[in-house]
């Protein structure tokens, strides 16, 4: 966590970041065997951070929405077992004739993650889009149409769907299309998260749309994940979009850890730095980070 936590002698993680705000861009799920453990860890750090004036946010990613939809194709065997243990099953109950009872494990996971289920309720606390000072955070991307619709409305509708809230008509809240419906939605869009634009026209078009988006939000930059960057965290559109998914999870590329740090300089302007470790460091302009 970029020097913001320490491990005690007892093995507990303690927040040391004071009023720092940490934003995790989603896709905690479908990346390994310990998903619920990681959610609980980040939630606990958030509680500690808020006592100091800071915060630890998790955003909705496409893999969070997939699991709440009941799409478990990317779930590891260990994660199926973890959700079953979370639901109260013992190890011997998960097996049938000395083999894992995958149908049972799938049914239990569905109960845990379906709208209104305990993990869906927990995930409903995550924003889909977050604005911190002059920086906007979204898992996949953000377009003018999303801003026109209303970011607070998008966040509220995703949360309502995950909680299985009732509508005034008596039905259950539906997932908002603009948040998660197709390739142009917030969690699935790759227009700005691809490492390279295919043509100069694509770059001009994407950067122009981003300028409109940020202008309507009075923001200076967008930070996205969703698409692993093989050369490490980078920026485009004159620093208006930062692409920071480096695939560091063992379930993706197991790449060296990188984060970006956004701080104010003495004139009150935001300074963005990539804080690298490992082999990515050689691709940056300076050993201690890249500043713009």
Structure characteristics:
292 residues, two-stranded antiparallel ribbon
Written overview of the protein:
- With 292 residues, the chain is of the alpha/beta class.
- 32% of the residues lie in helices and 17% in strands.
- It has helices at 35-51, 62-68, 77-86, 102-113, 118-123, 144-149, 151-163, 177-180, 200-217, and strands at 5-7, 13-15, 21-24, 55-58, 95-96, 99-100, 129-132, 135-138, 221-224, 234-236, 241-243, 258-264, 270-276.
- The strands form five sheets. A five-stranded mixed sheet has the order 7-8-9-11-10. It has a two-stranded antiparallel ribbon with strand order 1-2.
- A hairpin with a 2-residue loop joins strand 7 (129-132) and strand 8 (135-138).
- Mean pLDDT is 91; it is low at 281-292.
Low-confidence stretches: 281-292
Radius of gyration: 20 Å
Q: Please state the structural category.
A: alpha/beta
Largest sheet: 5 strands, mixed
Separation of the first and last Cα atoms:
22 Å
H/E element order: EEEHEHHEEHHEEHHHHEEEEE
The tally of beta strands, per DSSP, is 13
Helix content: 25-40%
Report the average pLDDT across residues: 91
Strand content: 15-25%
Question: Which strand order does the major sheet show?
Answer: 7-8-9-11-10
Q: Helix segment count?
A: 9
Shape: globular
């Amino acid at each position: 966590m970029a020097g913001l936590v320490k491990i005690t002698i007892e093995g507990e993680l303690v927040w040391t970041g004071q009023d720092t705000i940490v934003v995790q861009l989603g896709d905690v799920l479908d990346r390994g065997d310990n998903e619920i453990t990681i959610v609980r860890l980040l939630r606990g750090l958030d509680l500690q951070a808020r006592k100091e004036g800071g915060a630890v946010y998790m955003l909705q990613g496409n893999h969070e929405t997939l699991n709440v939809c009941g799409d478990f194709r990317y779930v590891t065997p260990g994660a199926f077992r973890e959700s079953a243990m979370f639901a109260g099953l013992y190890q011997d109950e998960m097996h049938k004739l000395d083999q894992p009872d995958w149908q049972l494990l799938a049914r239990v996971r569905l109960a845990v993650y379906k709208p209104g289920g305990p993990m869906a309720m927990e995930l409903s606390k995550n924003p889909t889009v977050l604005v911190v000072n002059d920086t906007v955070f979204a898992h996949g991307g953000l377009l003018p149409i999303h801003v026109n619709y209303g970011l607070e409305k998008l966040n509220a509708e995703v949360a309502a769907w995950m909680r299985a809230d009732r509508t005034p008509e008596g039905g259950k809240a539906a997932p908002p299309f603009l948040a998660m419906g197709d390739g142009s939605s917030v969690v699935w869009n790759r227009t700005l998260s691809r490492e390279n634009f295919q043509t100069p026209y694509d770059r001009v078009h994407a950067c122009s749309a981003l300028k409109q988006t940020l202008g309507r939000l009075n923001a200076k930059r967008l930070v996205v994940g969703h698409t692993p960057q093989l050369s490490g965290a980078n920026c485009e559109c004159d620093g208006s979009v930062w692409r920071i998914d480096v695939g560091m999870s063992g379930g993706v590329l197991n790449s060296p850890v990188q984060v970006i740090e956004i701080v104010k300089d003495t004139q009150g302007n935001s300074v963005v730095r990539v804080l690298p470790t490992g082999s990515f460091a050689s691709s940056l302009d300076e050993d201690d980070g890249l500043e713009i």
